[in-house]
Amino acid sequence: MPLPPDTLRLRSLARVALWLAAVVLMTGALLWKCHATRTGDPMPLTAARCDSLLCHRVPHTSVLRYEGFTAYFDPAIHMSRCVTYLLTPGHLEGDAQRTDLFMADSAVAGCPQPDAYAGTALHRGHLAPAADMRWSQRALQQTFLMTNICPQHASLNEGGWANLEQKCREWAERDRALVVACGPVLERGLDTIPHSGGIPLPRRYFKVVMAPQASPGRAIAFVYPNSEAAGGALRRYATTVDSVERLTGIDFFALLPTDEQRQFESYANLQRWLH
To answer: Which helix (H) or strand (E) element contains residue 209?
Structure first.
């Protein structure tokens, strides 16, 4: 017996509704997948992932692996071109005591002596901060090796540089982990420190900061003058990782895929770091 027209119409409408619902569900799933790929949970910070993030290509250097940081040391200039380390909330805990005992690393050719800046007003500025190594007495003591030390103006060492180090601690607490790389900008025409054996005096210092566990992951860089002008708001010094690569010739995060490097290195949104 043929179905009434109204019943046929209702069945047709029901089929259309089911088809539309299926389309909506499939579209939603695809959009969710794309969104998750861009802004979802970051990749787990495994030991292998951490090692890849801490690997940079730094010309003319020997790689020195210490307990809490890695130094890319250039024996020709008696200075590290870059120091890199991982900073997590756990690294900010501990009771290791600061000794202020600066030392040469006797195993490293070209390492300067602790009195290399004697007779100047320059500070022995840490690249990897002692305050970030309280989790281990040995790691903290190693930050006083001269392979981790660069000549810094007092206003930079005690001012802008120290303020940025404190900001990094706050960001590590919030974002679960930071990868930090820092060092001098070694450009042509630098003066050398008198009676130092040829140690150059940098005019600028850089710090590259990545938050790989933030959602989404992000990176930013800062370039500070090595002078009395090294103070004031962070926005005066913020820049992209790409720009620091051009300044220094260093290829940061060199083991990451090209697309991932581009994601981290091309943009510098300071507001996302400050809020």
So the answer is: strand 204-211
What DSSP element (H or E) covers 126? strand 123-126
Q: Are 24 and 32 in contact (CB under 8 A)?
A: no
121 shares its domain with 16 = no
Indicate which CATH number applies to the domain containing 145: 3.40.570.10
Mean pLDDT of the chain: 88
CA distance 74 to 6: 86
- Compute the distance between CA of residue 85 and CA of residue 173 in angstroms, rounded to an integer: 15
pLDDT given for residue 12 in this prediction:
62
Whole-number Å distance between alpha carbons of 164 and 152: 15
Q: Is 72 left (phi over 0), alpha (psi -120 to 50) or beta?
A: beta
Quick: pLDDT tens for 186-202: 999 999 999 999 999 99
Q: Which domain holds residue 238?
A: 48-274
Going by C-alpha positions, the residue among 219, 234, 233 that lies closest to residue 269 is 219
**Same domain, residue pair 180 and 76:** yes
H-helix segments, the chain? 5-39, 47-53, 137-142, 154-155, 161-175, 241-248, 258-265, 270-274
252 within domain boundaries: yes
76 pLDDT exceeds 70? yes
Q: What are phi and psi of 118, to 5 degrees?
A: -60, 140
Q: For the purposes of burial, counting CB atoms within 10 Å of the CB of 14, is it exposed (0-12), middle (13-18) or buried (19 or more)?
A: exposed
The alpha carbon of residue 187 and the mean position of all alpha carbons in its chain are separated, in whole angstroms, by 21
pLDDT at residue 26 in the model:
44
Question: For 229-251, what is the mean pLDDT?
Answer: 95
What pLDDT, in 10s, does the model give residues 7-39?
A: 556 566 556 555 545 444 443 443 333 333 333
